[in-house]
What does this fold into?
Amino acid sequence: MKATRILFFGVLTILLLIFVYGFFDQQGEEDYTGKVQKFRRDKEEFLRQSKDSPLAGQPLAGHLHYFAPNPQYRFVAKLERSEKPQDLYIPMTDSTRERYITYGTATFRFQGQLHSLQVFVQAKNPSNFFIPFTDLSNGQSTYEGGRYLDVERQDKVREIVLDFNFAYNPFCVYNPQYVCPIPPKENHIGFEVLAGEQKYHEGEEHD
It folds into this structure.
């Protein structure tokens, strides 16, 4: 259906931005902050100008909000690949289901506690990892339905970087005509992920 197609290309565009700006190269906090901010500016440029944008033709000022870049929410996670990847039909916001493949599990530590997230690849776009998640900030400072994180797929590694400063809202948050995957309950993080994109404020102006 058309909405799903538009969602796919929109996410692909964001993925390309993440690949360019999403890697921490040990050049200091200032450079890291600049990369995060550059990613956000380019994403907003896509939302403002692309014909595939869920916000095409709408003003963005005062509506898009983010946490300040914080390397504390960048984790090097242990990646344990599934012995037998299986199909998982993830529920979508229009009550349909879309096929994903369970690639493995990413495990990281925060404040002394271990946390794990299922890592998926989209059947239509298997070259990238897709990690939909919820956390304790949902419904307060972030969208109640959860957010997404994309990571470049690498099959010969045992670790991946989960940088939640690049977490973004599903496109259906901006426009209900768009169809989005619902994060599985297994991908709930038991702390507030105060990084990445915050709630979308439709029709409101904020400082």
Notes: The chain is about 20% helix and 30% strand. Residues 19-26 have pLDDT under 50 and may be disordered.
